[in-house]
Specification:
There is one protein chain. The chain contains seven helices and 40 strands. It has about 725 residues and is mainly beta. It has a single domain, classed as TonB-dependent receptor, beta-barrel domain (Maltoporin, Chain A), CATH 2.40.170. It has a 22-stranded antiparallel β-barrel. A five-stranded mixed beta sheet has the order 3-9-10-7-8. It is globular, with a radius of gyration of 25 Å. About 50% of the residues are buried.
Length: about 725
């Protein structure tokens, strides 16, 4: 929506938050906001006391809008954008800085953790999120305590812990486009000291985009997951928490299509689908997707945490394991027929062990120290099937790319907070780490042997590669309490995302040791801000300005025929403002806006997946319509400005996007049951979420794009017992 420009977004957000400043504090008697406790720094802390920009959503808010994965979650978090390429390569952006989408050997700059289990591969990021206590989106470098792959930020998913009484819930949702999802959980305490919880979900939901050739509403999400958790108070001083989760994520189809045909080149080839809308016309003979692309991931996650409480310390041991098996069949050419497809299989497993000690005496100096070890094994085989009928076989001839990679990561860290006075605190921490990668890469031509798969993309034998990096990173911040309700802070963070090998890179010389290497990426993050409680606890208002300096930002550019990988210095600066207001017992507001000016330093070109403006305005309202029934209303208005989908502004900037989500519900007064009508993207606004140059060599200048989901209505029923 072009009419929603930059300044009105700021003014709208300011208008929503301005009542917090205008009402007289001494005479205001509205109810207070509930205190939010987070664990972003591996301690239980109040959100208002942590000198970090953090957004938090609880499970109730996730359910209100049928948020089932991180892609949906991004619609509610200012400063966060999450896009994916046709092969499910992920682009997760915080404050305008993102990791590349294609190269699966890359590390991510935003780490994701489930109960502290670090996800070492972006493939795990697409797992469904359910039965959570809360999600914490942590903006800014978190290298000291969270460590690996948190140079830009982190996402912490905290599951609900087993309860002390038998109880739980079940939830069923139906979509207007077809299909349903079921979620539920039950607490089964075994004794006063041993408690268990079983949670799970199943979804079989059709998408809102119609593939006219296959008859499918895409993407189709056919997923399930089950989680078993147990908490055991072994003794007065020792406790144990164990979690095991297994699941399968199946996605059939995608929304990629041509985005315009200004010169009629596509129409001349008989391709009529050139409008970014809710209709696509493409098919493939590869895979089990009945003509659509197919993505299947089976995953397992296990976590064991043991806490030993001493007189003034807590010693924690955390042991984690995760793995996945993957089979992808990607239709990239956005046409009927098979001209470009990628067929990929991956096997991945990881193990980690952390031991840390933290002080608990609450005196002048609070501190934490620990050791961390992480190892992973990854194998990938991908066939690139090129079959464009171009004279000379220039774009015709399949090839097989394989990589096997082992990673070992060792780290030691220490962090402390010095309470200089009752109002002044200084915190600092260091993390020393070494990462070692050993890989073997190979490319093989597959018949028919052509110019494309023997000369332009030459085969090469199994080539051993090794990489190592020593890292000294850290964080520091200074906090000062201006008043009992207002804290100002200044913080600095330095983080490293290790380099490695560009497994999808075009290697024209046939020597990956020369052309597949990638330098490490280093981030310096500076931030100044304040956090305040207003109106006797009825409101909060937070703001920060930041500057992110990136040395050797890792980028991959797809030209339509090849992947080009490299490093470039970049920076992002801007501000964020957020606030909440509990206006009455039944009415609350929240809002936030983030401005990010992100570009490469040398060229001045905008970074990809980096909209300048993102913002949200939310409302929650409850009203008793009788002695027995409660009416609920939740609304969220989101806006992001236009963004580039390829590095170096490789394709034109996409349109801005403004969506409105509204949920209306009715329940009994105790909310034992609740019936909700959920409307997603009621404005039916459509914009490019990800794009790349069209791969047909006879149509230069055209763009393939995927859009956000069109308007969708759902019905949801929840029963608590």
């Amino acid at each position: 929506m072009k009419s929603f420009e930059k300044k009105p977004l700021v003014f709208a957000t300011a208008a929503a938050l301005s009542p917090l400043l205008m009402l007289p504090m001494s005479s205001y008697s509205a109810p207070v906001l509930e205190e939010v406790i987070i664990t972003a720094q591996k301690r239980d802390e109040s959100l208002s006391d942590v000198p970090i920009s953090i957004s938090v959503m609880d499970q109730e808010s996730l359910d209100n809008y049928q948020v089932d994965d991180l892609f949906d979650l991004a619609n509610f978090i200012p400063g966060m954008v999450f896009s994916r390429a046709p092969d499910d390569g992920l682009v997760l952006s915080f404050r305008g800085v993102a990791s590349v989408s294609r190269n699966q050997a890359y590390e991510q700059a935003v780490g994701v953790f489930l109960d502290g289990v670090f996800f070492g591969k972006g493939r795990l990021y697409s797992a469904g999120i359910y039965d959570l206590e809360r999600t914490e989106m942590i903006m800014g470098t978190q290298s000291t305590l969270l460590g690996k792959n948190t140079s830009v930020g982190a996402i912490s998913l905290v599951t609900k812990k087993p309860g002390t009484e038998i109880g739980g819930y079940t939830q069923v949702s139906l979509s207007e486009h077809g299909g349903y999802s079921v979620k539920g959980a039950i607490d089964l305490p075994i004794s006063d000291t041993l408690r268990t919880r079983i949670a799970g979900y199943y979804s079989e939901l059709e998408g809102a985009t119609e593939n006219e050739l296959t008859g499918n509403g895409v993407p189709i999400d056919d997923n399930y997951s089950i989680r078993f958790s147990t908490s055991w108070d072994v003794s007065d001083s020792v406790s144990l928490d164990f979690m095991y989760q297994t699941g399968q994520d199946n996605k059939t189809g995608d929304t990629f299509q041509l985005d315009g045909d200004p010169n009629g080149l596509a129409a001349a080839l008989g391709i009529t689908d050139s409008k970014l809308d809710d209709k696509i016309y493409k098919s493939t003979n590869f895979g089990p997707g009945d003509g659509d692309s197919s993505h299947d991931i089976d995953s397992n996650i296990a976590n064991l945490v043991i806490n030993w409480t001493l007189e003034n310390h807590v010693i924690t041991s955390q042991t984690t394991y995760a793995d996945y098996d993957l089979a992808f069949f990607d239709d990239v050419d956005v046409e009927p027929g098979d001209y470009l497809a990628f067929i990929r299989e991956e096997d991945y497993s990881q193990y980690s062990q952390e031991i840390r000690i933290a002080s608990t005496n609450g005196e002048k100096l609070d501190y934490m120290a620990g050791l961390y070890y992480f190892t992973s094994d990854w194998e990938s085989e991908e066939i690139g099937y090129w079959d464009y009928p171009v004279p000379g076989d220039v774009f015709e001839g399949p090839m097989l790319n394989t990589i096997e990679q082992d990673v070992d990561y060792y780290a030691a860290f220490v962090s402390g907070t010095w309470h200089i006075s009752d109002r002044l605190r200084l915190a600092a921490g260091l993390r020393y780490a070494e990462e070692i990668k050993e890989a073997v890469m190979q490319r093989s031509a597959i018949e028919p042997f052509t110019l494309w798969n023997t000369i332009i993309n030459p085969p090469y034998p199994a080539t051993p590669l090794d990489y190592s990096e020593y890292m000294l990173n850290g964080n520091a911040n200074l906090q000062y309490d201006l008043t009992p309700n207002t804290m100002i802070y200044a913080s600095y963070g330095n983080g490293t995302k290790t380099g490695g090998f560009a497994e999808s890179n075009t290697i024209p010389t046939g020597n990956p040791d020369l052309e597949a290497r990638l330098a490490a990426e280093t981030v310096d993050n500076y931030e100044i801000g304040f956090k305040s409680n207003l109106l006797d606890g009825a409101a909060i208002l937070n703001a920060a300005i930041y500057y992110i300096d990136i040395t050797d930002l890792q980028k991959t550019l797809f030209t339509g025929a090849e992947f080009l990988t490299g490093n470039a210095d970049a920076r992002s600066y801007g501000f964020d403002i957020s606030g909440s207001w509990q206006a009455t017992d039944n009415l609350s507001f929240n809002g936030g806006v983030v401005y990010a000016d992100a570009e490469e330093k040398d060229s001045g070109l905008k970074l990809d997946i980096a909209p300048e403006w993102t913002g949200n305005l939310g409302i929650r309202f409850e009203h008793a319509i009788s002695d027995s029934f409660l009416l609920g209303l939740n609304g969220n208005l989101r806006h992001r400005s236009g963004q580039f989908a390829q590095p170096k502004e490789g394709i034109p900037e996409g349109d801005s996007l403004t969506t409105l989500d509204i949920t209306a519900s009715i329940s009994d007064m105790e909310e034992t049951w609740k019936l909700s009508l959920i409307g997603r993207n009621l404005t039916d606004d459509i914009a490019q979420e990800f794009g790349y140059p069209y791969t047909n060599p006879l149509t230069p200048g055209l763009i393939s794009s995927a859009s956000n989901s069109p308007r969708t209505m759902m019905v949801q029923f929840t029963y608590n017992f």
